[in-house]
Design brief:
The complex is a heterodimer of chains A (144) and B (194).
Chain A: H1 4-15, H2 21-33, H3 35-53, H4 59-69, H5 73-92, H6 105-114, H7 117-143
Chain B: H1 5-8, H2 15-25, H3 29-49, H4 55-71, H5 79-96, H6 105-116, H7 123-134, H8 137-147, H9 151-165, H10 169-193
Helix pairs in contact in B: 2-3, 2-4, 3-4, 4-5, 7-10, 8-9, 8-10
Classes of the chains: A mainly alpha (144), B mainly alpha (194).
């Protein structure tokens, strides 16, 4: 069974007209007979139209999209709606910059727990060398 | 034997024939109506995604031909599969049609520029603002959070929104899509009344 990302990529390739006729027929048989598969296609279409409206497609994808979607009034209507939606959503809320919080002691514990034993040894050795270097530096300062 | 093509074109869809088609979709009239809408939308999308210039017309042609076959007494054991078969034929005929207008790529670019260069607040945008205002608070919040921000941040925001609502990311995708479909219908109606 395909993973979610792979499945989405497959639907996107279908919508862009970038697959073989046999693959196309498989997808068509799926969504023409299954409501859920059809809804997933519509969602993939939403995502693709939005990506086009936001300028997030590669040159090749954009060209494929324009060739496949802008030929029908329905396709153009969807793109126009997406442009309006992107604008309306941007105006609906002032832009807020989300700053990642400073790592708390608890995050350090979590980070430590995520380390493999070999990484832990390396981290301890590194910190010990830093301390030794710092002490040696301080001693040298006193000596001067 | 099938009648010649010239005769096929003369067949006109009647109320009785259409009722028979609806009956095959569902015995209950209301449910049959809903199923008809669903079948038609799938066909429209099928033709649209196949690059048809007029997907609505080709979807209706498919339904008319299926209805006619039923009226003529064809044994249809699996209606869905039958519709699919007829749709494929309609698509193949449409691709073979020498009169079919091909939109050259330059025209598509021109259309792209027209779409992107809408000055000021368009009627569509004003309608959309109105439709957004009519949404219940939770739906409005979902739509805004789901579609705001740049690509990378957007994915993160969607994960957080799904967690906040206590649903899977796929359930959130479906929910946002359904709200969006409602909005698109609302905007279409609003534009039609402008």
């Amino acid at each position: 069974m395909l993973g979610k990302l792979e499945a989405d990529a497959r639907l996107t390739r279908y919508l862009l007209g970038a697959m073989s006729e046999t693959e196309r027929e498989d997808i068509e048989a799926e969504y023409l007979s299954d409501e859920n598969a059809f809804e997933q296609m519509l969602i993939a279409e939403d995502e693709l139209v939005d990506a086009y409206a936001r300028g997030e497609l590669s040159d090749k994808e954009r060209s494929q999209f324009e060739k496949n979607f802008l030929t029908s009034a329905r396709g153009r209507d969807r793109v126009e709606f997406s442009h309006a939606l992107v604008g309306a959503v941007a105006d609906a809320r002032p832009v807020t910059v989300k700053v990642a919080p400073e790592p708390s002691p608890a995050s350090w514990v979590a980070l430590w727990a995520a380390f493999t034993p070999r990484l832990r040894v390396a981290a301890v050795t590194f910190m010990a060398s830093c301390r030794t270097w710092k002490n040696a530096h301080r001693v040298a300062g006193f000596a001067r | 034997m099938d009648p010649p093509t010239s005769l096929k074109k003369e067949w006109v869809l009647t109320k009785e024939a259409f009722d028979r088609f609806l009956c095959l979709l569902d015995i209950d009239r209301e449910r049959a109506g809903q199923k008809y809408e669903s079948v038609r939308l799938r066909l429209v999308k099928y033709f649209q995604w196949s690059g048809a210039l007029e997907p609505d017309i080709e979807a209706d042609e498919t339904i008319t031909r299926v209805t006619r076959k039923i009226e003529e007494g064809a044994n249809v054991y699996n209606l869905n599969a039958y519709i699919q078969g007829v749709a494929k034929l309609v698509k193949a005929e449409s691709l073979r049609n020498p009169n079919r207008k091909h939109l050259v790529i330059e025209d598509a670019y021109d259309l792209a520029v027209t779409i992107q260069e809408e000055p000021g607040k368009s009627e569509r945008r004003m309608c959309l603002d109105r439709c957004l205002d009519k949404l219940p608070d939770e739906s409005r919040e979902i739509i805004i959070t789901y579609y705001e921000n740049e690509k990378g941040i957007r994915i993160q925001c969607r994960k957080q929104l799904a967690a906040k609502l206590g649903v899977t990311q796929n359930a959130l995708r479906i929910n946002a899509h359904r709200i969006r479909m409602g909005l698109e219908t609302c905007v279409r109606n609003c534009l039609a009344n402008c």
